[in-house]
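Appendix C reproduces, verbatim, an entry submitted by the partner laboratory led by Prof. M.T., so that reviewers can inspect both the input and the predicted structure.
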Amino acid sequence: MRNKFFAYVIISSVLIVSILISAFAVNLSRTGEILSEPKFVEDYSYLLYDNTQYDFSNDKIAKIDFNDSYKFVEVFNLDPAQSFGGGIASIGSIENTTNMKHGVIELFTFTKNLDVINYQNTASYVDTTAYNETNYLTGNSIDNRFDGELGNPMIVLLKEIPLNDTHWIDFLEINSNSLDFNYTYSIPKPHFEEISDFEIIDVDSDGKYELFVLGRNTTNPTNYSLAEYSYNSSAKIYNLTNTYIWNGTNQNLIEMNMIAEAANIHFIIAGIVSSSLESFTQVISITRGSTRSFSLTGLEYYSFGADTFRVYGMKLYDTGAANSRGVALFGSYSVGVSDTYPFCLNIVDIVNPIIAPDFISLSYNPSWSFDGLMVDIDYDGIDEIIQTTYDLVGTIKSDYVVMTSSGLTEVNSDTTDLYQIRSSANLGLSEFQISSWIGKNDLGNFAIEFYYPHHVSYRLFGNAEILIEDYENQLYIETTDLAGTVNPRSDLYLHAGLTFDPSIDEMLSSMPEYLNFSIGNIPVAYENEEILLNITKGSVELNKDEIPISIDYIPNIHVFAPPTPVQLRNELIQTQSYQVVVENILSEELNGTIEISGAASNYTSSTPFSIGETISVTHPIDFVFKGSDPEAMYDEVVVITVTTQAGIYEFESIIRVTNLFHVTVNDLFIIFGIIAVLVIIIYIGLAMMILRKTEDSFDKHFTTEEPVRLDFKIFKKKALSNLIQKYSLEKNWKAGINMAKEFQPKYVSHFHKFKVKEQLVSGQKLMDQGKFDDGLAFWQEARDSLEVIGQHEWIDMLNWLIDPLQRIVEIRAMKGTEKAAALEKEFQNLNSMKDQEFKVLGKKLDIPLYIVAEELGIALKDANELQTSLNYLQLAYQGAPEKFKNRIVTEITGLISLGVTPTEFAMPIDHEAIRERIEKRVVRCFSCGEARTNINEVCPNCGINTVLCSVCKLPISFGSEPLECYHCQNVAHKEHLLEWVKVKGTCPVCQQKLVADKLGVAEEKE
């Protein structure tokens, strides 16, 4: 067996080592390639700069404060005409030293020097007519003189004279630095009860301007009139030539604007129905030409159910479409009784209203809006709407809200430096535009603010936030509207450059477009560089931005690909790993992701990383065969993408995937694994066979005393351990004792306990059958084993039974009266102990008293003491099992047949005899082990009194392990006290509660 085993070990080891060497050889021959030249991906999805947010307040030029003598009502623009470069005028009244007010106008003009906008108060005019009280209400401008004569541009003003409740039209000529009075026309009182607004235009292109006045009719106050006044060159006066009258019951007119087309002129009127506070617009049109008449072409009421919208101001704006003018109404939107919000109603085409109006209600405080501003901020041909708020009390500064005119999309909002903004205007010049609004300052005086609105919203993208050295870097710019929606612009001009190298420059004429920056070798990383962007439209500069950018080195990236080919069989999936190493040589930490995807296997894995210097990431990828032919092969293209703020880098790895047979490393390792498992299984089987053979050899030795034959001594210990378990389970104490004596001495007591139990049980069975001499032999053998175990307590207990048993066996050899007397004495002794329980190793022992009584009855019968014999036989009958009662009945029947009469039996008890027997019993001192017969005496050797069990009251012998009460320290036999606690739960002496687990072994008494 030994030779066969070693031969197997040598052969299996050589086979396994050979397979391992082959696997490593194949692996070395198919090592994967290293990819180190990545492709720089032009992705342009990385947002470098977002310039879509526009803040109107950033374009503020100046704020001009006036003293408290000024009371302005309106600000309006004067477009460039002839020699006049254009300007903005504010009109109203001014108080003199005598507290009389006169109409006033302040004219501001603007120039641009590089990036700086300059303004000046070019001219002022105060109405010094004979009337003490005048006030300018509204104004317009015309490109030439009103009477058809050549001259300078003019400002036309509607003037109110409160003293006689009359209205005049003043014409002021604009000179280089002054406003000069030219002409005035008093509107006849019979024509109008009151005047709301006016417009001036050369209707028939004859050089003379017609006046169109809006007001309440004098003859019928419920009617309104739009009257046309034409200039009479001969009389040098304006004459009423045409009037359009309509019923205006419950109407309050707010404002009028004019849209001039080639064939028609449309007057847009906004007002409020006084009874319901419902707002409305109506369009009154007039045909251009020598013969013309008015007509109502549109009338719209704007209802919002239980809520109301009240208009306070109106502005026209350019929608970008041909022959289409939009109208924005500004006012307040009331919800319920107390909630009021600023409101803007947008009508896309007021002349041909096909699209339903849009509106926006702003949750702003103050909750009113008296006016708004129309301005094409981004110069795309479509005006934006700037809505301003108005606080009636004048304690809260006005807000402005920038909105697109399409759908009233809110762009942003902010707070102005003015209170109670009431009028605004926008002036468009060749190189720039000026917006203004008029309100009050912190002192409650009037002030005017000027703004230079210019902004193109755009986003700048790249494939990284870092420009890479020695590379053609591209950036992508896309333009948007002010709401951030992509809006490609082809009307813009872009100049772009880098601050560190002004020679790098890009000039683009339309957007979206690419910027290209070719950066050569750099000595150090440029961390605080800027891209300069200048966007213009014609001569108008819209944006001039400086965008932070870094210029740095390209990181080193390497990819370790798996070996090829990848062999798949039966369409299984195989996992291979790619290792990606990123070495950061940049001057900042890299952040990004590593992604590996296979086109055919449709697999993607992405791992984020953050590194300061070098990182290595290993990714698994599953290859799945995709060929139609089971014997075919294909090339799997795996793309490794490393994305960082320094750019996106791609590697392509081509892996051949096949179903054709190739001896692969995996194959060899699988074979190695199978063989290794088989070898191990056989090793285990051989070991179990050898162990079993060793066990059998020992087993025969312990049972038949055959010699032990061993091939491998290393299995000896395990075999003996198994035999111990086997003999213990089988309770084979004979073999167990033999084995323990020879090899495991510590188990001698263990197996002697099995012997004691078996001998006690066997002896007790014989006792129950009356075979006292045979039972005595078993109990004596059990006592000998107890001597080996060393349990003196059990030895003493067993001796108490063996002693009377020996005497009974001896008495059986006697005859006649002597036998009867001896048996009666032993019966009395045994009867005195019948209430005591004798247990050894859990086995209950006793000498059947009925058998002694039966033998005593028979002995008394032989001694001719028939009556006493009958009494003992009756006692035996009462205690005997059913199967033994017949023989006792036979004896009793025989006595009765002899004339003996049964009587009540009284058992004589000789207490003195019992006490004498107990006193003569041998007891070992609990302290020193000295043997003595009298338990009432102190030990002559150590002077200690006899220790009695607190439960059974019998002596506790030397060598026992009694338990001690942890309350009163009284001791008892271990088994007796545990059983007592199990039943009672208290100490038999002090009666306090006891827990079995806490009981301690009592120390020997000194």
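The radius of gyration is 62 Å. Additional entries are available on request from the coordinating office.
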